[in-house]
């Protein structure tokens, strides 16, 4: 059985890595007023954050239409017998459910939707792992068993540079945002039960990053192979410094760099930083 691997744009797997691993991608969209852009196709993360600086109103976001899923699945059916479709958490988007619906509408390919229960490049880890196994000829059931096994060790923590976008997007009340700004509170966020919730509130960015490093150390110090990713919102130099620090400290860690693109960046804002990992 020949199995395709598909994910959505919020995995933010760099294009060259997608192409290297034969991973297909369906884009979500970001909407500025009357203008709609497919992220990773019609607008880059850098272009998005530059545009954001000129706008008073937050953009909105939208999931891929079911018809686009159907069209893509039917195209894949010309070459593949099955597709594993890896998507951002169903708790924050209807994209996964769209894949489920479309999968029930096509007859010539077997669709296996997978809810990553999180997003960004940590979601991408599932697609990369699945792609490697598919190239080895593993069946969809075996690949999905491995992805569910990964869920036991996968971790992701992120923090925002300030609370403005969370407030403007309805994630924080005005009073909470004001108090947070005055006290320099840097909430560490994570996914729990498929939704984004605060993990801890830290007073400064430096302390928040150090706390995330502590959480990472708990796993990395076990001397098992770890695959990690630093995710940034237009902070490539900071991400590179963290990557160098982690790789120098831990010989068992493979560390990638990715980014918060337009859809996720709409809610987190420029300057957000995250760290995700799993045991290989």
UniProtKB/TrEMBL annotation:
It comes from the Bacteria. The keyword Protease does not apply. It holds the Pfam family DegV. The keyword Transcription does not apply. Keywords: Lipid-binding. SUPFAM superfamilies: DAK1/DegV-like (SSF82549). PROSITE patterns: DEGV. This is DegV family protein with EDD domain. It comes from Metabacillus malikii.
């Amino acid at each position: 059985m020949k199995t395709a691997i598909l994910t959505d744009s919020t995995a933010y797997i760099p294009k060259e890595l997608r192409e290297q691993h034969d991973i297909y991608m369906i884009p979500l969209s970001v909407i500025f007023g009357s203008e709609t852009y497919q992220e990773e196709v019609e607008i880059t993360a850098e272009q998005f954050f530059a545009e954001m600086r000129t706008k008073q109103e937050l953009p909105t976001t939208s999931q891929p239409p079911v018809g686009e899923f159907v069209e893509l699945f039917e195209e894949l059916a010309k070459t593949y017998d099955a597709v594993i479709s890896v998507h951002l958490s169903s708790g924050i988007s209807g994209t996964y459910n769209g894949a489920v619906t479309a999968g029930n509408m096509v007859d010539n390919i077997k669709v296996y939707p997978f809810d990553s229960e999180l997003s960004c490049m940590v979601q991408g880890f599932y697609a990369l792992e699945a792609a490697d196994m598919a190239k080895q000829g593993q069946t969809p059931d075996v690949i999905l068993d491995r992805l569910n096994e990964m869920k036991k060790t996968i971790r992701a923590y992120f923090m925002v540079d300030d609370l403005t976008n969370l407030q403007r997007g309805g994630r924080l009340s005005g009073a909470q945002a004001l108090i947070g700004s005055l006290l320099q509170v840097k909430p560490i966020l994570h996914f729990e039960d498929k939704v984004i919730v605060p993990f801890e509130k830290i007073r400064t960015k430096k302390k928040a990053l150090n706390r995330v490093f502590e959480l990472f150390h708990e796993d990395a110090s076990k001397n098992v192979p770890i695959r990690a990713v630093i995710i940034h919102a237009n902070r490539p130099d900071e991400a590179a410094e963290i990557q160098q620090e982690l790789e120098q400290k831990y010989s068992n860690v493979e560390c990638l760099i990715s980014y918060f693109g337009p859809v996720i960046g709409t809610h987190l804002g420029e300057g957000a930083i995250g760290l995700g990992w799993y045991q290989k």
